[in-house]
Amino acid sequence: MLEIKNLHASVEDKEILKGINLKVNAGEVHAIMGPNGSGKSTLAEVIAGQEEFEVGEGNILLEGEDLEELSPEERAHKGVFLSFQYPVEIPGVSVTNFMKTAINESRKAQGLEDMPASEMLKKIREKSEMLEIDRKFLSRSLNEGFSGGEKKRNEIFQMAMMEPKLAILDETDSGLDIDALRIVANGVNKLRSKDNAIIVITHYQRLLEYIIPDFVHVLYNGKIVKSGTKELALELEEKGYDWLKEEAAV
Amino acid sequence: MAYTEEELKKELETKEYEYGFYTDIESDTLPKGLNEDIVIAISKKKEEPEWMTEWRLEAFRAWKEMEEPEWANVTYEKPDFQNISYYSAPNKKPKYNSLDEVDPELLETFKKLGISVDEQKKLAGVAVDIVMDSVSVATTFKKTLAEKGIIFCSISEAIQEHPELVKKYLGTVVPKKDNFYAALNSAVFSDGSFCYIPKGVRCPMELSTYFRINQAGTGQFERTLVIAEEGSYVSYLEGCTAPMRDENQLHAAVVELIALDNAEIKYSTVQNWYPGNNEGKGGVFNFVTKRGLCEKNAKISWTQVETGSAVTWKYPSCVLKGDNSIGEFYSIAVTNNFQQADTGTKMIHLGKNTKSTIISKGISAGQSQNSYRGLVQVNSRAENARNFSQCDSLLMGNRCGAHTFPYIEAKNKTAQIEHEATTSKIGEDQIFYCNQRGIDTEKAIALIVNGFSKEVLNKLPMEFAVEAQKLLEISLEGSVG
Ligand SMILES: Nc1ncnc2c1ncn2[C@@H]1O[C@H](COP(=O)(O)OP(=O)(O)OP(=O)(O)O)[C@@H](O)[C@H]1O
Ligand SMILES: [Mg+2]
Q1: Residue A220: CB within 6 Å of ligand 1?
Q2: Which residue intervals define the domain SUF system FeS cluster assembly SufBD core in the entry (chain B) (predicted)?
């Protein structure tokens, strides 16, 4: 599904990603952990095509296709979805209207007609029920005045609506209360299939109890310094990152 | 006896006015320049009664003594008022024989707005075969209105057919000497609309200048008079979203609304005059005076979407004379490239318990300048007057400007006035967020701008709102990159 080879990225001459290698197969869930400022969000945004970052060496391949020349919207049309760590507000644009536009733009790129209104409504009803989102919420302006947790839940609602091939969830768990975490995680699990892949960025082992990863990677100082299975997350919870930092320094 | 242009000019310069002289003019356009003879000539061309001629002359004399205002936040080369022709008969000859001759850029825009081919021809000034449909629509339209006693016709026709109404109300809200452009308009206006809603009648349809029979296109000096008798209601639409090109650079319209006791007037405008090219060349100067008078319990709402013109100077206002009357102003003003707009409103609270609401949304892109200028005035006798103003500006890029000039004059201690202002920029992060969801930058901007303007768009009649949304998109096309 996704293959990242020796990826370097910098902003304003400051190198943030320093040679990332990562392979994610269809049907897999990968977790990325790592200390603050290590480059997790940067990696997510570079995959999504954020032009703020300059990609130096390396490639990102999605189903074998190099993404380098593709704009963020083209990547989205190919099935890349990013659940943002800090979702932005768009005043006056309702969640529903935003989703309708997003879905129809992607369909247009695939040469399809607009989704019929009845189908759209059905889908909205289904997905909002799955994530226990109040219908009134969907007519509010996108993220405007949403609580931290509401924003995150709304990101996953969008993921459910867009049915991406590759979803990257950047700290979706932070801000969610205990019940919300369970609801959102269950939602994500329902979206798992053998044809898609998910990358979860998190600081906490708790999320990984719900969304069980196939692999766990530790990103430190722009590099993946350790990879393992879900047990690695437990070890990190217990020991912190210092031992890895020392290891990396050697 | 035929005159050449040259002879005529000389004649006008030297000769005193003689009755009957004008019937001899064969040309349909008056010579350039403005003096009393020209004013008289316009009046005669329109076969107006003497009181109207006299009215125009008074306006002209006042105008001669006035100075062009300087206070607006716009700069432009002042028009040479002696180098303008003030009258030309409605052009009966089509400008083009087929659509192929029309500027392709204009046609492209028509297409984007979803305007039918017949309509495109009409708007661009291409010869059309008689379209039975539109004729019959117009006829049914007129019949429905007549049954209710509603008068909707050109102002020239009204002067002929309903002189008592015109005489009673013309210039009562915008006096002849109100300001430089209003005085000019009063002296030389050549056409416009007249609308009268009888007592207690609710006008059953949106009245649109677009559908008005007998006159296609908009004049350079338009004059509009809308009278809503006691307890009546009318929603009036002015302009259309299709881009209007005009070789006349200067436009100075006057609109007067009169809402008698318990009446309501909703006046919506979409203005899309040619703004000049993207280097700032050409384009229409639009200096408009719009004002409404509210008697007891009456309500006037102005809603406008302004996307056109090189220079716009426009302050739709409400005089809240009657107790409990309500004034509203909802505006979206978009400026792009080198456009300059200085718009806003005046709410004059004279009666008790009067209420006004101002929602202004300014969107600036390119190197344009967009100013909001609003006055809220509460008279000493206006007990419990209330105003709420909200002015939001949205900037695209960092070469454009947004300015807000709110003026508040409260002479009564019970007045409650609230003013909120925000300025925001379309953020890179907002664009990226949309991009990430598969929405390209152009579409993302349209989405953000529509969201920003929503409170005002919602005030427009349905069909108009959809068109206005598309228009906003088109106006901002190519403004990022
Ligand atoms: N636009 C930018 N300009 C300058 N520095 C940046 C920019 N974006 C990111 N950085 C820097 O890059 C480093 C990595 O940031 P990133 O957001 O990827 O970290 P993270 O691993 O997601 O951290 P957290 O766990 O706190 O979310 C940080 O030092 C950050 O300050
Ligand atoms: Mg981060």
Answers
A1: no
A2: 211-452
Distance between CA A163 and CA A102 in Å, rounded?
12
The answer to whether the CB of A225 falls within 8 A of the CB of A41 is: no
Domains, chain A: 2-249 (3.40.50.300)
Cα separation, A201 vs B32, in Å, equals 74
Residues of B in contact with A50 (CB under 8 A): 432
User: Which of A73, A92, A103 faces B435 most closely, judged by CB atoms?
Assistant: A73
Q: What is the DSSP-derived secondary structure letter of residue B15?
A: S
The residue to mutate among A10, A12, A16, having the most atoms of ligand 1 within 8 angstroms of its beta carbon, is: A16
Dig out the tokens for B311 from the structure: 């220079």
Closest CB from B427, B436, B447 relative to A101: B447
The answer to whether the CB of A51 is under 6 A from ligand 1 is: no
For an interface test with A, which of B432, B441, B459 has the most A Cβ atoms less than 10 Å from its Cβ? B432
Q: Using alpha carbons only, how large is chain B's radius of gyration in Å?
A: 23
Domain boundaries, chain B: 1-31, 98-130, 143-475
Instruction: Supply the angle between the helices B50-64 and B180-188 in degrees, to the nearest 10.
Output: 150
Q: Which residue of B has its CA nearest to A48?
A: B436
Pairing of strands B299-306, B340-349: unpaired
Index of the ligand 1 atom closest to the CA of residue A171: 27
pLDDT per residue, tens digit, chain B (481 aa), is 343 444 434 433 332 322 222 223 334 567 778 889 989 988 988 889 999 999 999 999 999 999 888 777 777 777 788 877 777 654 444 556 676 766 666 666 666 666 666 666 655 555 444 333 344 455 567 778 889 999 988 888 899 999 999 999 999 999 999 999 999 999 999 878 899 999 999 998 888 765 443 333 345 788 999 999 999 999 998 875 555 555 557 788 899 999 999 999 999 988 777 777 666 677 778 888 999 999 999 999 999 998 877 778 889 999 999 999 999 999 998 888 888 888 899 999 999 999 999 999 998 888 888 889 899 999 999 999 999 999 999 988 788 888 889 899 999 999 999 999 999 888 889 999 999 999 999 899 989 999 999 989 888 887 678 778 887 877 777 666 4
- Measured between alpha carbons, how far is B315 from B450 in angstroms, rounded to an integer? 23
Q: Which of B381, B383, B364, B384 is closest to B372 using CA atoms? A: B364
Contact by Cβ (8 Å): B151, B196: yes
Sign of the torsion angle spanned by Cα atoms A106, A109, A110, A111: positive
